[in-house]
Amino acid sequence: MTNCLWQAYENAKRSVTCDVLFLLEFHINNTLVVRSKNSTRNLLFNTVSF
Known about the structure:
With 50 residues, the chain is α+β, with helices and mostly antiparallel strands. Helices cover 24% and strands 32% of the residues. The protein has one domain (3-49). It is globular, with a radius of gyration of 11 Å.
């Protein structure tokens, strides 16, 4: 994982509670989706800007 994507992932972790488990999914449209197993909220990061 590139450094910029890792920073985006770390920022996403800090924005939610510590006990939430994340699933990272990389899509062909260059969008990083961080999905929480305990929530329907998805955090989207446009990897093109990185």
